[in-house]
C-alpha cells in the first residue's frame, strides 16, 4: 500500500530544468525621451490626498522585466499633538518605504538606511514647493510606498553590480507622485514639483559616453554618473538635486549638460502631473 | 526632521540682519565672524592618534567641536558568485574543489557545461581584474544626542559613503586576491553635540584618517590564503605616497610627514551655501539659517600629472600643478531657513507702530483686523505671507535655487579645490 | 587663506590669579558678583587662589558660615564645612564660598540680561537666559502698547505672540527670584524690550577665565567714526548681558538699553511706548556699520578665546586695537577675521605682552 501521509519524491531520476540564456536587454527607447508615465490621483479614499504612479514597462515580453510602481498617500494638514512645540510652519514628515517584494533583495519591514535617505531627499524636494507658512501649528505626513522598484529581474549573470542607480529613478518617481498627492490634498504649493533623471552612460569601451534621459539601468552597458533633480518649472527653480558618479572635475560642460537633460525630464513629468490634476478637477466639477 | 533644522531658534530681526549682511554685493558678504567667503574655520588636526586602528585622525574646531575617526580593516572572504566560478574553474579546478564548504561552487560546476561557453571569454578576462564591491566599506556616524537611525545621521552617513564609493576606485584598493578582500570599517564619532552642521568636520576627519590608513604588506602570492608582514613599518598606505622616505615619521604626529604627498587623495565633502548672489564656504549655524540654498559637494583627486614641489603646510605652494580633480557627488541640503519664523512688518504689526498710540484695547483689535484681510487675522502668522517683501523683515525663502546658482556653487568648489592643496599640513 | 590647520598644542599653563585682593576682577569669570558684595568685603579676602575639590574639608572652625559651593554634614560635627564644587575658595568676612571655574549663570535681582523666548504660554513667556532654569516674563511685566500704563486685558492675552514670539531676543532686568533660583524678568522701561538691527553672540560655557563680568555698565555705545573708512557718524550699541549673552547692534538715538542717560525718563513713557518696542523690522543699516558690528563681534570672540574678561573697558580697548590692526594690514583682504593667530595678537596687545 502506498504511503499517503508523506509526499514522496519522484521515483526516477530528474534533471534540473535548463533555461536558455535570454537575449541581452535591448534599448527600447531613445535617449532623449522618458518612459510613459501613468499617474492617477485620489486612489486612497481614506487619505486627505493620494496618487499612484506607474512607469511604462518598456519591454513587457521579457520575463524578468519590471518597471516602477509607486503609491503615495498624504495625511493632513492636521493639528500637531499638544506636546509639540509651537511651529509657525507646517511640519512635513516624509516616509519612503519599499514593499518587501519591490526589489530583488527582499526588504524588511523596518526602514533601512537607503529608504531613510530617500525620505530626506523627498522632504527637501517638497519643502521648497509647499507654502509652509499658510498652515501654522499643523503637520502633514507623506507616505510613499514603492510597490515595484524599477529593478531588472533578469537572470543573475546579466545582472550588474548593484550600484544603486535605480534609487535615482525611484526618487524622481517619488517626487512626482508626492507632488500630485499634495496637490490632491489641497495643500498650497508654489508650483508642482516634478522629478527627473539623466545619466551619463557608456555602452562599451569603444563608444564615447552619451547622456540619456530617464535611464533604464539594465539596458545600458554601464552608468558613469547620474543626476536626479526636483524642479519647479514655472519658477524655474530646483528644490533638490542629487548627483553622483565619476566625472572628471574639470568638465563642468558635461555636468551642466547632465543637469539640463534632467530638467527636460522634469518638465516632461510635470506635464503629466498638470494634465492629471486638470482631469481630476474637471471630473469633480462634473459631479457637483 | 533633518539635523540641519534642529535646535534652531533665531529671531526674525537677527535673521533679517544676517541675510542682509551676507547678501551684500559691493564689499562682498560680511560674515558675523569676519571670515572671507571662502575661508574655513581654523582647525587643529592630528593623524595616527589611535594605535589600535589602521588609520585614525582627530580634528578640533576652535569652538570645541571635535571629531575622531578610526579606520579598522579586517580580512574577509569574498563570496564568489556561481557565475564567476564557471569561468574560474576552467583554469583552476584544483583550487576551487579545495573549498569544500562552498556549495555554490558545486552547483555552479553542475550547471557549467550548458551555459559557460559564451560567458567564458569575458569572465576569463575579468579573472585577474581587480574588482571591488560597495559592501567592503562600512561607514558609521555617531552624533551624540541623535539616534542612530535619525534621518539626519543616515543622510550624513549615506552622503559620506556615497562620496567614497561613487567612482568605484576606492573599493578596488581593498582587493587582496580573488578569494579575499579587506573589509574596511570607518567609524566616525563626534565628541560633543554639533554646534553647526557637522558635515565638513566629519568629511575632513575621514579624509585625514584615510590618508593615514595603512594596511599590512601582503606576503602571500596570487590566490593563496593571505599572509601578511608582521612589521607595521612595512605596511603600505591605502593612498600610496610619492615620497616613501617620510613614511616612518608618520607615527609621530609631526607635520613633517606632510612632505610625502599622496598621489591621489580620498574624497572630501564641502558644504557651500548661497545667499543672494554670494557663495559662502563652510557656513556656521547662524549663516546656514539664512541660506537660500545649500549644497554638499564631494570632490576627490586622482593621481596628479606632476608632483608638487615642497608643499608647505598652511599655504598655497608656489607651483600649482595640474590636478586631476573628480566631481563625485552633489546633494542639496535642506536649508533650515525654510523653518525659521517670519518677521512682522511694522505696517501690519498691531503691537509695534505708532498708529497704535492712545488706542484702547478694543480699537487695537479693530485696527488689527483692518490692517490684515478677512480670515488672515485668525492666524497672526499667516498674514505675513500675504504681504510684500519688506526691507528689513525676515521671510523664510520659498521655492528652490536657480539652475545657474547651483552650477556656480559646484564650479566654485572645483575651482577653489584646484587652487589649494588642502590639509597637507596635518601631520 | 582658505583653510588654516593649526598644530595640536598642549593646553596653556593655568594663569596665576593675582593674589592681591584689591584687583579681584582681573581676568576672572566673576560669577558671584563682587560688585554686589560691596567694598568692605575685599579686606577679608586672603587666599583667593586656594583650590578646592568636591568633598574636601574647608574648615571645622565654627566661626565660619557656609556660602555658595559648600555644604555641611548634618549631625554631630556640624561645624565642618566641605566644598561641593571644584573651584577657588573665597572668604568674604566670615562667609566661605567656593567659586566654580565654570558655571552657568545664576540670576540676581537687578541683573541686565539678554534672553531668548523659548516658549509662549497663556499669560507669560519662558525665556532662555543661559541659567539652569528658564526665566519667566509675565505679560503683566511688559509695557503694553497703547501709550498709557494700562491694565492687561484678555485681548492682550489672545495676541500674546504679537509682543514676543518664539526665538525672539529681548533685553530685560531680573525683577525677582523664586526659591528655586528661577528668575522673573520685566521690561517695564524704555531701555528694555525686543532686540533688532544687530547680531547675537553667546560667551557662556567657554570657561578658562573669560566671560562677561558684572560691571557698573553692561550696555554702552561705541563710536565707530574713529575709523576713517566710515563715513558719517554711526554708532554701535553693545549690550553685555550679565548672563553672557551679548547683543551688538546699530545705535539708534533714543532707543535701546544704552540710551540710559539720553533717553526719555520714565515719566514720558506714555509718549513713546509702542513706537518700535515690539517691531521685528530692521532699519536700513549702512554697510560700514555692518562691518564694524562684525569687527566688534570678532573682538569679543578673541577676548573670550584668550581668556580675557569681557567688559566695557576691554571691548573698547580691543576694538581700537582691532581697528589699528586693520589699518596696518590695509593690503590684505581679510581684515575682519580675528580668530586664531590674529586673535592672539590682539589679546597680547591688550594685556601688554
From TrEMBL, chain A:
Gene3D superfamilies: GHMP Kinase, N-terminal domain. Residues 1-26 are annotated as: Disordered. InterPro entries: ExoRNase_PH_dom1, ExoRNase_PH_dom2_sf, PNPase/RNase_PH_dom_sf, Ribosomal_Su5_D2-typ_SF, RNase_PH. Pfam families: RNase_PH. Keywords: Cytoplasm, Exosome, Nucleus, RNA-binding, rRNA processing. Its main location: cytoplasm. It is found in: Cytoplasm; Nucleus. Residues 34-187 form the Exoribonuclease phosphorolytic domain. CDD domains: RNase_PH_MTR3. It comes from the Eukaryota. Belongs to the RNase PH family. This is 3' exoribonuclease.
UniProtKB/TrEMBL annotation, chain B:
Keywords: Cytoplasm, Exosome. Residues 317-326 have a biased composition (Polar residues). InterPro entries: Exosome_comp_Rrp42_subfam (IPR050590), PNPase/RNase_PH_dom_sf (IPR027408), Ribosomal_Su5_D2-typ_SF (IPR020568). It comes from the Eukaryota. Gene3D superfamilies: GHMP Kinase, N-terminal domain. Residues 95-107 have a biased composition (Basic residues). It is found in: Cytoplasm; Nucleus, Nucleolus. Residues 86-116, 301-326, 363-384 are annotated as: Disordered. Residues 363-375 have a biased composition (Low complexity). SUPFAM superfamilies: Ribosomal protein S5 domain 2-like. Belongs to the RNase PH family. PANTHER family: EXOSOME COMPLEX COMPONENT RRP42, EXOSOME COMPLEX EXONUCLEASE RIBOSOMAL RNA PROCESSING PROTEIN. This is Ribosomal RNA-processing protein 42. It comes from Apiospora rasikravindrae.
From TrEMBL, chain C:
Residues 51-90 form the Exosome complex component N-terminal domain. It is found in: Nucleus. The keyword RNA-binding applies. Residues 21-33 have a biased composition (Acidic residues). InterPro entries: Exosome_cplx_N_dom, Exosome_RNA_bind1/RRP40/RRP4, KH_dom_type_1_sf, NA-bd_OB-fold, S1_RRP4. Keywords: Exosome, RNA-binding. Residues 1-59 are annotated as: Disordered. Residues 104-176 form the RRP4 S1 domain. It comes from the Eukaryota. Its main location: nucleus. It holds the Pfam family S1_RRP4. The keyword RNA-binding applies. This is Exosome complex component rrp4.
Amino acid at each position: 500500500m502506498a504511503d499517503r501521509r508523506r509526499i514522496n519524491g519522484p521515483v526516477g531520476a530528474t534533471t534540473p530544468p535548463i533555461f536558455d540564456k535570454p537575449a541581452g536587454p535591448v534599448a527600447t527607447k531613445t535617449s532623449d525621451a522618458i518612459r510613459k508615465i501613468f499617474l492617477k490621483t485620489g486612489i486612497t479614499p481614506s487619505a486627505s490626498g493620494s496618487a499612484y504612479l506607474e512607469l511604462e514597462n518598456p519591454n513587457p515580453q521579457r520575463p524578468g522585466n519590471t518597471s516602477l510602481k509607486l503609491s503615495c498617500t498624504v495625511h493632513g494638514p492636521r493639528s500637531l499633538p499638544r506636546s509639540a512645540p509651537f511651529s509657525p510652519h507646517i511640519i512635513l514628515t516624509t516616509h519612503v518605504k519599499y514593499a518587501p517584494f519591490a526589489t530583488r533583495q527582499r526588504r524588511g519591514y523596518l526602514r533601512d538606511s537607503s529608504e531613510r535617505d530617500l525620505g530626506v531627499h523627498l522632504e527637501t524636494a517638497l519643502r521648497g514647493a509647499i507654502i509652509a507658512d499658510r498652515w501654522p501649528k499643523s503637520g502633514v505626513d507623506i507616505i510613499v510606498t514603492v510597490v515595484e522598484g524599477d529593478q531588472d529581474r533578469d537572470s543573475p549573470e546579466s545582472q550588474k553590480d548593484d550600484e544603486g542607480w535605480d534609487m535615482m529613478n525611484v526618487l524622481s518617481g517619488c517626487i512626482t507622485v508626492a507632488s500630485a498627492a499634495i496637490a490632491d490634498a489641497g495643500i498650497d504649493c508654489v508650483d508642482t514639483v516634478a522629478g527627473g533623471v539623466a545619466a551619463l552612460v557608456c555602452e562599451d569601451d569603444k563608444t564615447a559616453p552619451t547622456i540619456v534621459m530617464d535611464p533604464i539601468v539594465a539596458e545600458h552597458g554601464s552608468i558613469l554618473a547620474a543626476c536626479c533633480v526636483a524642479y519647479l518649472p514655472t519658477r524655474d527653480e530646483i528644490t533638490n538635486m542629487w548627483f553622483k558618479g565619476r566625472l572628471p572635475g574639470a568638465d563642468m560642460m558635461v555636468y551642466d549638460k547632465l543637469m539640463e537633460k534632467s530638467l527636460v525630464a522634469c518638465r516632461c513629468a510635470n506635464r503629466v502631473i498638470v494634465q492629471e490634476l486638470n482631469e481630476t478637477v474637471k471630473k469633480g466639477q462634473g459631479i457637483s | 526632521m533633518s539635523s540641519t533644522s534642529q535646535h534652531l531658534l533665531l529671531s526674525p530681526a537677527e535673521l533679517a540682519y544676517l541675510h542682509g549682511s551676507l547678501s551684500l554685493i559691493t564689499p562682498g558678504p560680511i560674515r558675523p565672524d569676519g571670515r572671507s567667503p571662502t575661508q574655513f574655520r581654523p582647525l587643529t588636526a592630528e593623524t595616527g592618534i589611535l594605535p589600535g586602528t589602521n588609520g585614525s585622525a582627530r580634528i578640533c574646531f576652535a569652538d570645541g567641536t571635535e571629531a575622531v575617526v578610526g579606520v579598522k580593516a579586517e580580512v574577509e572572504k569574498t563570496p564568489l558568485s556561481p557565475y564567476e566560478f564557471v569561468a574560474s574553474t576552467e583554469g583552476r579546478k584544483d583550487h576551487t574543489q579545495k573549498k569544500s564548504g562552498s556549495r555554490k561552487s558545486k552547483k555552479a560546476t553542475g550547471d557549467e557545461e550548458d551555459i559557460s561557453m559564451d560567458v567564458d571569454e569575458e569572465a576569463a578576462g575579468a579573472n585577474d581584474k581587480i574588482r571591488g564591491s560597495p559592501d567592503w566599506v562600512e561607514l558609521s556616524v555617531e552624533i551624540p544626542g541623535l539616534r542612530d537611525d535619525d534621518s539626519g545621521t543616515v543622510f550624513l552617513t549615506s552622503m559620506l559613503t556615497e562620496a567614497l564609493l561613487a567612482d568605484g576606485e576606492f573599493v578596488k584598493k581593498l582587493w587582496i586576491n580573488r578569494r579575499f578582500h579587506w573589509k574596511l570599517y570607518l567609524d566616525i564619532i563626534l565628541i560633543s553635540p554639533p554646534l553647526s552642521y557637522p558635515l565638513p568636520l566629519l568629511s575632513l576627519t575621514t579624509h585625514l584618517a584615510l590618508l593615514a590608513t595603512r594596511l599590512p604588506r601582503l606576503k602571500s602570492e596570487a590566490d593563496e590564503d593571505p599572509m601578511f608582514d608582521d612589521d607595521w613599518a612595512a605596511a603600505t598606505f591605502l593612498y600610496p605616497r610619492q615620497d616613501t622616505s617620510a613614511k616612518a615619521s608618520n607615527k609621530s604626529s609631526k607635520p613633517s610627514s606632510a612632505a610625502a604627498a599622496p598621489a591621489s587623495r580620498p574624497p572630501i565633502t564641502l558644504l557651500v551655501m548661497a545667499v543672494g548672489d554670494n557663495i559662502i564656504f563652510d557656513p556656521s549655524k547662524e549663516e546656514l539659517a539664512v541660506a537660500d540654498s545649500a549644497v554638499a559637494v564631494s570632490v576627490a583627486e586622482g593621481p596628479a600629472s606632476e608632483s608638487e614641489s615642497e608643499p608647505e603646510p598652511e599655504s598655497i605652494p608656489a607651483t600649482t600643478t595640474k590636478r586631476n580633480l573628480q566631481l563625485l557627488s552633489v546633494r542639496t541640503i535642506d536649508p533650515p531657513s525654510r523653518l525659521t519664523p517670519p518677521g512682522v512688518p511694522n505696517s501690519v504689526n498691531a503691537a509695534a507702530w505708532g498708529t497704535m498710540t492712545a488706542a484702547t484695547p478694543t480699537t487695537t483689535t479693530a485696527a488689527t483686523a483692518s490692517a490684515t484681510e478677512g480670515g488672515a487675522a485668525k492666524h497672526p502668522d499667516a498674514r505675513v505671507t500675504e504681504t510684500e517683501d519688506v526691507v528689513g523683515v525676515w521671510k523664510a525663502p520659498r521655492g528652490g535655487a536657480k539652475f545657474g546658482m547651483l552650477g556656480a556653487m559646484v564650479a566654485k568648489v572645483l575651482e577653489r579645490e584646484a587652487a589649494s592643496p588642502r590639509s597637507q599640513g596635518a601631520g | 587663506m582658505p583653510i588654516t590647520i593649526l598644530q595640536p598644542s598642549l593646553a596653556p599653563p593655568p594663569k596665576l590669579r593675582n593674589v592681591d585682593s584689591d584687583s579681584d576682577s582681573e581676568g576672572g569669570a566673576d560669577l558671584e558678583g563682587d560688585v554686589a558684595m560691596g567694598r568692605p568685603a575685599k579686606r577679608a579676602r586672603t587666599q583667593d587662589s586656594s583650590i578646592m575639590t568636591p568633598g574636601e574639608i574647608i574648615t571645622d572652625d565654627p566661626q565660619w558660615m557656609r556660602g555658595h559651593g559648600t555644604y555641611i554634614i548634618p549631625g554631630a560635627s556640624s561645624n565642618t564645612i566641605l566644598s561641593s564644587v571644584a573651584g577657588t575658595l573665597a572668604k568674604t568676612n566670615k562667609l566661605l564660598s567656593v567659586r566654580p571655574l565654570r558655571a552657568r549663570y545664576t540670576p540676581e535681582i537687578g541683573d541686565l540680561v539678554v534672553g531668548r523666548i523659548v516658549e509662549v504660554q497663556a499669560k507669560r513667556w519662558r525665556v532662555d537666559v543661559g541659567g539652569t532654569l528658564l526665566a519667566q516674563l509675565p505679560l503683566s511685566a511688559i509695557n503694553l502698547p497703547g501709550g498709557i500704563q494700562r491694565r492687561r486685558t484678555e485681548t492682550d492675552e489672545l495676541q500674546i505672540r504679537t509682543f514676543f514670539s518664539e526665538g525672539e531676543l529681548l533685553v530685560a532686568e531680573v525683577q525677582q527670584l523664586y526659591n528655586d533660583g528661577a528668575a522673573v524678568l520685566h521690561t517695564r522701561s524704555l531701555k528694555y524690550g525686543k532686540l533688532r538691527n544687530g547680531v547675537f553672540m553667546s560667551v557662556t560655557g567657554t570657561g578658562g577665565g573669560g566671560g562677561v563680568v558684572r560691571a557698573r555698565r553692561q550696555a554702552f555705545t561705541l563710536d565707530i567714526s574713529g575709523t576713517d573708512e566710515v563715513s558719517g557718524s554711526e554708532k554701535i550699541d553693545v549690550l553685555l548681558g550679565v548672563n553672557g549673552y551679548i547683543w551688538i547692534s546699530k545705535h539708534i538715538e533714543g532707543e535701546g538699553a544704552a540710551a540710559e542717560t539720553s533717553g526719555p525718563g520714565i515719566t514720558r513713557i506714555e509718549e513713546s511706548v509702542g513706537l518700535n518696542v515690539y517691531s521685528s523690522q530692521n532699519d536700513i543699516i549702512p554697510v560700514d556699520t555692518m562691518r564694524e558690528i562684525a569687527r566688534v563681534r570678532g573682538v569679543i570672540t578673541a577676548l573670550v578665546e584668550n581668556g580675557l574678561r569681557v567688559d566695557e573697558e576691554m571691548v573698547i580697548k580691543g576694538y581700537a586695537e582691532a581697528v589699528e590692526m586693520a589699518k596696518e594690514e590695509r593690503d590684505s583682504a581679510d581684515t575682519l577675521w580675528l580668530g586664531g593667530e590674529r586673535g592672539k595678537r590682539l589679546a597680547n596687545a591688550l594685556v601688554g605682552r
